[in-house]
Amino acid sequence: MNMTRTSRGLAAFGLAALPLAIQAADTPPDSAAETVSLNPMVVTAALVPRTADESLASVTVLDEAVLRRQDPTSMTDLLRGQPGVDITTQGSFGKQSSLFLRGAGSNANVLLIDGIRLRSATTGAASWEFLDPRLFERAEIVRGPRGSLYGADAVGGVIQLFTPEGEAGAPRPRVSVGGGSFDTQRHSASLAGGSGGTRYYVAGSRFDTDGTAVRRDGDDKGHDSTSGLARLSHTFAGDAEVGLLALRSRGRAEFDASGPAVDDFVQQVAGVYGELPVTDRWRSRLTLSEARDERDTLAPSYASRFETRTRTARWQNTLALGRHELVAGAEYAEDDLGDSETSGLPFDEDRRYNRAVFAQGLLDFQPLTTQLSLRHDDNQAFGEELTGSLALGYALDEHHVARASYGTAFRAPTFNELYFPFVGSSNPDLAAETSGTLELGIRGQHDRWFWDLAAYQTEVDDLIALDETFRPVNVNEARIRGAELALGAEIDDWTLAAALTWMDPESRSGDNAGKRLARRATQGLRLDVDRELGDWSLGGSWIAQNHRYNDAANQARLPGYGIVNLRAGWRFAPMWSLRATLENVLDKEVVTAQGAEFDPVTFEAMPFDYLNAGRAAFVSVHFGQ
């Protein structure tokens, strides 16, 4: 797909959507539920509940209805092509994946699961490929810097996944069994309920596939994972609440490393919290949590084992002052790599702490609203960082809100960059990458449809890159400009969502000044269309991106792609349904990353493409509400 063809496609879609939007504007809503789904409540953007138009941020919410309709086999399939989101993978089904949010890499974005951060302390990135989407009921994608609320690495934004929490009433079971192409099997079961102020939710899932080849003429690379989830909470008579969460996933992923190779992994989050209404206006919440990212790798030429843990204590207070709100708190976190006997790699430092205090004012002077936040981090490894943001919103009328914001953020150097034990491969004197982002946006919120347009520019300083000896240093600068348009509508039995993304991620220093940052596409489109037909539902997605470069010098060009996914559902009996998906219907080749191996005689690098799966079909039977 070339850039011209992509541009024509985006323009054609915009023209096609226009009459639909006009029709929707004149159609009254059938229920309050539809309006809520188009203007949902979000908590990630401002730490407290705000509707999407009140959040003064670029947000996308993927709710339970979206997850059920699409029934994705991986979290990356769900997120691919959403506004500002770009995914690269080294194959399908458990293969290493990177998520770029507004051009910021995987280690410059934050993943939260019910408020608990999950990532590897050694690489700084989250393992998106190991998360089972069936364990979650909601995803919030907040684009733009959130360093003043969440600390390190929230440069491109924050993605938070929410697990079900159960509701009062008799136990409600849910079971799903299915499978499909590549000898894939998917099973899941859950039980939810509550009584007397107590709510619970327990679930388990299993995924197993023979996989596909990740390079031409290669062998199939399989993947399996087993996951479990438990949530329990109790609300007392005085509205105080306590709760706990435990989520664990473990399994194996085969990959290509000049021969058979395998990752045995564990992803885990656990936490307890207590929330107390100190007064009618003041609520205080304390959360204690631990996140684990463990990986045991065996490849032909090497073996490694990492067990990283992050333990966090977070105290957050919310004070209501009439129409205004104040949020303030403190956070203590400690990263731990375990001992060198476990990993076999004697890092110079194997743990570090981070202490932080933060405050945010949410001021409502209708039609003007203001959000002002500030955070101070003190890190044992790289020193102190101060981040802040200011957002202004103005209600032009009852349907349109204009917004402007400026925020700063930073990316913390990882343990690998600071202390990796091989000589010359790390730099303990690294400073954090810093960034500043200016954003302008406007949102139109109507009864049956919405649209959101945003433009932004991010300047990144002290970008960490490898010098000529492959040692990480603070040398680079980058500028990322972009624009995003999100559209959504619910008309009669139709549900539509569209995302258009344009971005210019450019290196601004060194030999690659003026070149595009590696592995980023500059144009993207996602269109989701679904229709309810009584007991039947039909839908499809079209996801397209233009070309990208695998390297910083822009010599290795990877072609763009366009894929079509189809889906159908049938409620064939009370509590029973069948779902079928056909992914990559046209069997297009999708390559978003390259690898390389070295010629044993000349020692020259020989690149190869990482291939994603072609056409694939999956069917599943579901019982439960």
Describe the structure in your own words.
It is a multi-pass membrane protein. Residues 1-24 form the signal peptide. Keywords: Cell outer membrane, Ion transport, Membrane, Signal, TonB box, Transmembrane, Transmembrane beta strand, Transport. Residues 179-585 form the TonB-dependent receptor-like beta-barrel domain. The protein has a single domain, classed as TonB-dependent receptor, beta-barrel domain (Maltoporin, Chain A), CATH 2.40.170.20. It is 9% helix and 57% strand. The chain has a 22-stranded antiparallel barrel. A five-stranded mixed beta sheet has the order 3-8-9-6-7. It is mainly beta and 625 residues long.
Summary of the model, kept short:
The protein is mostly beta strands and 625 residues long.
What features would you highlight for this structure?
mainly beta; 9% helix; 57% strand; Maltoporin, Chain A; 7 helices; 22-stranded antiparallel barrel; disordered N terminus; five-stranded mixed sheet; 625 residues; 35 strands
Number of strands: 35
> What is the straight-line distance between the termini?
42 Å
* Shape type: globular
Biggest sheet: strands, sense, closure? Answer: 22 strands, antiparallel, barrel
CATH class: Mainly Beta
What is the annotated CATH architecture? Beta Barrel
Assign a percent range to the helix content.
Answer: under 10%
Structural class: mainly beta
CATH superfamily: TonB-dependent receptor, beta-barrel domain
Low-confidence stretches: 1-34
Number of helices: 7
Looking at the structure, the CATH topology is Maltoporin, Chain A
- Structural Rg: 24 Å
Q: How many individual domains?
A: 1
How much strand? over 45%
Summed over residues and divided by their number, the pLDDT gives a mean of: 91
InterPro entries: Beta-barrel_TonB (IPR000531), Beta-barrel_TonB_sf (IPR036942), Plug_dom (IPR012910), Plug_dom_sf (IPR037066), TonB-dep_rcpt-like (IPR039426)
Signal peptide: 1-24
Keywords: Cell outer membrane, Ion transport, Membrane, Signal, TonB box, Transmembrane, Transmembrane beta strand, Transport
Domain TonB-dependent receptor-like beta-barrel: 179-585
